[in-house]
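Before the break, one more example. Copy the sequence into your notebook; we will annotate it together after we see the structure.
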Amino acid sequence: MNQRTVFVVPVEGRIVPDPERGDDIPAGGRAVPRTTYWLRAINAGDLEAREQPKVAGKQKGEAQ
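Here is what the structure looks like once it is written out:
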């Protein structure tokens, strides 16, 4: 995530469409562009901006 994106999660009970992808923001959240559309949804209380979770992967030296 950078200054151009924000990680958003829908507030419980809300379904928020993602017009660029043609689906809804999943309950686990998604990084989206920091645009007026998304900032308005955050300010309206439909979405929460959160820290993006770390992607779990193999650590260096782990067995394959």
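The chain has one domain: 5-49. The chain is about 10% helix and 30% strand. Try to locate both features in your own notes.
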